[in-house]
Amino acid sequence: MSITKSLKHYLLLLSEIDSVYHEANLKLNISNSYSIILYTICLGGGSCPLQKIKKLSGLNKQTINSSIRNMEKENLVYLEYIDGKSKRISLTQKGQELANNTVMKIMDMENEIISRWNQEDLQKYLSMTEDFLAALKEKTAGL
């Protein structure tokens, strides 16, 4: 099977975007896993179900659990049961301060970039990305 030029370009862009986030995390003195977890919690307004982190982060279960245990030890987050077995992860004051000085800076930059796009282009980009994601999920479901 040959890889098309467009697919190579797309994959290269995804890789470069990941690299930019990694470099930003290094500059902000935060690990990629902490950044991803904090980012997801911030998307939830300072707390979110633990399952959401597992679903959205792309991190494996062991990395998530290890990172969260370390974050708890550092008094950055706390866990609480929300319904029987399900847990919610929330930022402590110290965790919110770390988020403000790291992932919230990245979110502000992302918002600034996105806000410069016209709405038609933005909606087209989002729609095409959603289509790609749905098709990829469908194609990989049987693996």
From TrEMBL:
<dbReference type="InterPro" id="IPR036390">
    <property type="entry name" value="WH_DNA-bd_sf"/>
</dbReference>
<dbReference type="InterPro" id="IPR036388">
    <property type="entry name" value="WH-like_DNA-bd_sf"/>
</dbReference>
<dbReference type="GO" id="GO:0003700">
    <property type="term" value="F:DNA-binding transcription factor activity"/>
</dbReference>
<dbReference type="InterPro" id="IPR000835">
    <property type="entry name" value="HTH_MarR-typ"/>
</dbReference>
<feature type="domain" description="HTH marR-type">
    <location>
        <begin position="23"/>
        <end position="122"/>
    </location>
</feature>
<protein>
    <submittedName>
        <fullName>MarR family transcriptional regulator</fullName>
    </submittedName>
</protein>
